Amino acid sequence: MLIDFVPDENLYPFESRWFDSSAGRVHYIDEGTGPTILFCHGAPAWSFLYRHIVKDLRDRYRCVAVDYLGFGLSERPAGFGYTIAEHTAVLGELIDHLRLDDFVLMGHDWGGPIGLGAVTTRADRVRGIVLGNTVFWPIEAMANRAFSVIMGSRPMQRRILERNFLVERVLLAELGRKLTAAEADHYRAVQPTAEARRGLAVMPGQIRAARPLLDRLSRDVPAQLGDKRALLVWGMQDMVFRPHTSIPRMRAAFTDLEIVELPHARHFIQEHTPDAITAAIAKRFP
Predict the structure, then answer these.
(1) What is the torsion angle, in degrees rounded to the nearest 10, for the CA atoms of residue 255, residue 261, residue 262 and residue 263?
(2) What tens digit of pLDDT does each residue of 117-127 get?
(3) By percentage, how much of the chain surpasses pLDDT 70?
């Protein structure tokens, strides 16, 4: 199924573009000219999460932001499993389709492992890495694993599918007054029905199920990308990926890493402090 929603051009002033991947029709935006940055979102977001950053950077960078299958305006294809491995493969197809080269990857939340998984096999084409509130190793924290188990239970799966729980009670509950009513509705509108939310429902279980992929990334990222210029932009109030455990592992993986702490930001950093992220990217990758 495709999503019957046209974003407000005042909030999302970008041209929608489409790629027919091997698994389904992928929506993305491709704005501006200059050095390329590929933006990868997490759950339960879509490319709308990067709107402020893209608007601020497209006068000097080419900004590509993707919606994974099952998210945003992309298709919800029959037979697609919505696993991290499948999203990674489709993103790799898009990178090759657009012939991206000498580009910077930015990954947030699940966009970290999805993006990194796609570029570890294309490392010679990567200029740099930007990571924010994400991981690329098996997620062992008890709170995260408990969240995975609870969200995978039948009652919570029903809430995710029928009541849009992950948008309403995770993303919007955190952002609260940071969003206007219209902005909040843009997160809701791309997940309008239970059928449209099946990709969302899979994601919590991937905390445990994607362990083989994450275990491989924990080795491949330092080996294939560890010498790339890297930037960490971290919401220091994040309760999902806590800074005191995550940042040291990031520091150990990259030999040329700059860290920008966002002291008051929680998990969805692009909504909390877009200006600080934009400035950090422009400074790190002039």
Answers:
(1) 160
(2) 999 999 999 99
(3) 100
Nearest to 274 by CA among 253, 285, 260, 259: 260
The yes-or-no answer on residue 109 being catalytic is yes
What are the pLDDT digits (tens) for 206-247?
999 999 999 999 999 999 999 999 999 999 999 999 999 999
**pTM for the full predicted model:** 0.98
DSSP structure string for 35-84: SEEEEE--TT--GGGGHHHHHHHTTTSEEEEE--TTSTTS---TT----H
Domains, the chain, ordered by start: 17-139+211-284 (3.40.50.1820)
Choosing from 41, 186, 238, 272, the catalytic residue is 238
Catalytic pick among 87, 109, 186, 272: 109
- 215 catalytically annotated: no
Catalytic residue check, 267: yes
d(CA 168, CA 171): 6
| Tokens at 56, concatenated | 């601020």
Say if residues 210 and 85 touch (Cβ distance below 8 Å).
yes
Catalytic member of 27, 108, 186, 267: 267
